[in-house]
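> forwarded from #structure-qc
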């Protein structure tokens, strides 16, 4: 009997051992595809480099690998980098990170301040040691040759009315073309859906006004008035003949336009200054004669809309829709 029991116990142990081996073998087989997927992704990423990028001035810049330490000397394009999950190691005009609501999620990013776009601190930039420097094409003649001694320089276009094109260019620089296309589609879908929501207001007129110290700028923001690719809102009749960037007007000129709805922003990017300007206008007869002011249809808009970046446009669209539909 004892012999039979011993044989039975041995048989059970043998079965358990074999089962364990089979499980280990199965786990190894299932783990392999995951490792293969990681390897394949790494191979695909490596295959993107080196690449030759042709910048806004037609210059060919060879990028040996994905840029990791980028210095951005063009404040309008912070949004493009952040949308692609990239953060510059150094940048000019960092004040916009604190002033623009569109950049609020990124205000605590660790970025070295190298001064202003017009007068960057090249010594500090040299200390940072970037592997790529990005500047607006119009500034290349001012200090581009000095920057070339620090790192390769790429110039970008300053056209704020072409955020899609700019985002695609950054997609090429960082090897993130598909990410750029995904973000473009997302924001264009938001604009198209918002346009549908605002169709009941097709008989109303809208104004976008940038305020300064005793200054008024009627702003022809593309995403607000563009009939094909924007919200398709109606500007006041006197907007029609303005340039695409708008122009400075008087308060009396604004009163003559007299839009049904009005969105205002500080021309310098400060929400505190905007509130101060509005407070000073509270006792002004011409200001109070505006239909939008009298009817409670005057709303604040983030100053980032003036830069024409994708995050500013996204915030601007959401702000406009929220306030118009709330009434």
């Amino acid at each position: 009997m004892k012999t039979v029991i011993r044989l039975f116990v041995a048989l059970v142990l043998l079965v358990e051992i074999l089962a364990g081996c089979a499980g280990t073998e199965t786990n190894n087989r299932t783990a392999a595809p995951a490792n293969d997927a990681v390897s394949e992704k790494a191979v695909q990423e490596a295959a993107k480099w080196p690449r030759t990028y042709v910048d806004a001035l037609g210059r060919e810049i060879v990028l040996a690998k994905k840029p990791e330490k980028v210095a951005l000397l063009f404040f309008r394009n912070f949004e493009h980098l952040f949308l692609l999950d990239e953060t510059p190691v150094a940048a000019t005009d960092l004040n916009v990170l604190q002033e623009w609501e569109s950049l609020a999620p990124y205000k605590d990013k660790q970025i070295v301040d190298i001064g202003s776009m017009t007068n960057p601190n090249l010594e500090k930039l040299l200390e940072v040691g970037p592997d790529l420097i990005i500047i607006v094409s119009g500034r290349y003649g001012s200090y581009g040759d000095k920057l070339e001694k620090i790192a390769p320089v790429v110039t970008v276009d300053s056209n704020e009315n072409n955020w899609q094109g700019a985002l695609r260019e950054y997609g090429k620089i960082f090897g993130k073309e598909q990410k750029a296309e995904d973000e473009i589609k997302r924001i264009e879908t938001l604009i198209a859906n918002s346009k549908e929501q605002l169709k009941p207001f097709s008989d109303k007129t809208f104004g976008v006004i940038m305020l300064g110290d005793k200054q008024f700028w009627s702003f022809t923001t593309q995403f607000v008035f563009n009939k094909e690719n924007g919200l398709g809102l109606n500007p006041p009749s006197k907007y029609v003949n303005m340039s695409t960037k708008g122009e400075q007007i008087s308060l009396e000129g604004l009163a003559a336009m007299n839009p049904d709805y009005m969105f205002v922003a500080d021309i310098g990017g400060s929400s505190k200054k905007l509130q101060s300007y509005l407070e000073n206008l509270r006792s002004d007869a011409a200001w109070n004669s505006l239909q939008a002011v009298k009817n409670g249809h005057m709303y604040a808009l983030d100053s980032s809309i003036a830069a024409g970046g994708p995050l500013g446009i996204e915030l601007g669209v959401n702000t406009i829709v929220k306030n118009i539909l709330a009434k």
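QC bot note: The domain at 51-178 is CATH 3.40.50.1980 (Rossmann fold). The first helix runs from residue 2 to 46.
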